[in-house]
Design a protein that fits this description.
Distance between the termini: 51 Å
CATH superfamily of one domain: Ribonuclease Z/Hydroxyacylglutathione hydrolase-like
Shape: globular
Order of helices and strands: EEEHHEHEHEHHEEEEEHHEH
Radius of gyration: 17 Å
CATH architecture of one domain: 4-Layer Sandwich
CATH class of one domain: Alpha Beta
Number of helices: 9
Structural class: alpha/beta
Helix content: 10-25%
Strand content: 25-35%
Oligomer: single chain
Length: 289
């Protein structure tokens, strides 16, 4: 086996202003959050691996497309007015988008797969087979579940499809956590002994918030399952993390994400040239109702 993961960098690829009930089933209707859009950059054998890619900016900035894909007022995507979030976030740490060796996508929702256009025809993209099959089937049902087919229906994408657990690179494993979407996957990341060992399990949307994990609360978004069925993937990830001695990281927690971003920066040091972020974190992760 080659070297395991030698560096973790968390990227904030935008923000989402939304009802808390999107993340926690049954949360009071008046409670709202400003949640980070996650990306995870991993230094592995062969180069950098990116987990998730944020929004497709064209669907937000074009008025007609925004009306189609974001017609309501409850959910508001927030990105910088220019540029591509993935390219900007990478540039902020001194990494070029062409340095990405492979991409893993947790699922095909528009806040996770919108940046795949930057990698089509360039690098392998890892996903669960059942996720892509659902996304490409029975139009327009997937779009009603926040999957924009234009994000992933590209013949240039070099799909590497898994049917369950799969290794993406040494130390990076996909863990099926179906429920939020038909083929959602989380990721287990094991660090090399040269950087202290240990590891992390990134839940992504199998568990948005810390309270989903600590109190085993059903998530608010699900496809083809009852809400209570989304608790079992959370328990599975908790067991995996406990067995491996890893830390389980929620996908959209507005408190945990910036704290862990700083933790990794302090643990591993800067990747390259630093610059100020294009997006400033809201101090409490909350927005007015």
């Amino acid at each position: 086996m080659g070297n395991l993961v030698r560096r973790i960098v968390l990227l904030t690829l935008g923000w989402e202003e939304l009802p808390k009930s999107v993340s926690v089933h049954g949360a009071p209707a008046h409670e709202r959050l400003r949640e980070p859009v996650p990306g995870v950059l991993l230094q592995a054998d062969g180069g950098w691996v990116l987990l998730d890619t944020g929004f497709n900016t064209a669907l937000i900035r074009d008025a007609a497309l925004r009306q189609r894909f974001y017609p309501g007022v409850d959910y508001v995507p927030v990105i910088s007015p220019t540029g591509e979030p993935v390219e900007q976030a990478l540039a902020d740490i001194g990494v070029d988008v062409d340095d990405i060796h492979a991409v893993g996508v947790s699922h095909l929702h528009h806040d996770h797969s919108g940046g795949l256009k930057l990698f089509a025809g360039k690098v392998p993209v890892h996903a669960q087979r059942r996720e892509l099959e659902y996304g490409l089937s029975n139009h327009p049902e997937p779009e009603r579940h926040a999957m924009a087919r234009i994000d992933f229906d590209d013949p240039r994408i070099d799909w590497r499809l898994a049917d369950g657990d799969a290794e993406i690179a040494p130390g990076i494993h996909a863990v099926p956590t179906y429920g939020h979407t038909p083929g959602h996957q989380s990721f287990s990341v094991e660090l090399d002994e040269s950087v202290g060992g240990g590891g992390f399990v990134f839940a992504f949307d199998a568990a948005d918030l810390t309270e989903n994990i600590e109190h085993e609360l059903a998530i608010g978004g699900f496809v083809g399952v009852a809400p209570e069925e989304t608790v079992e993937p959370i328990r599975r990830l908790k067991r995996l993390a406990t067995e491996r001695g890893f830390t389980l990281v929620p996908g959209h927690d507005p408190h945990v994400w910036p704290q862990l971003t700083e933790h990794f920066h302090e643990r591993f040091g800067p990747v390259g040239a630093q610059s100020h972020s294009h997006l400033v974190a809201h101090p409490e992760g909350e927005v007015p109702a």
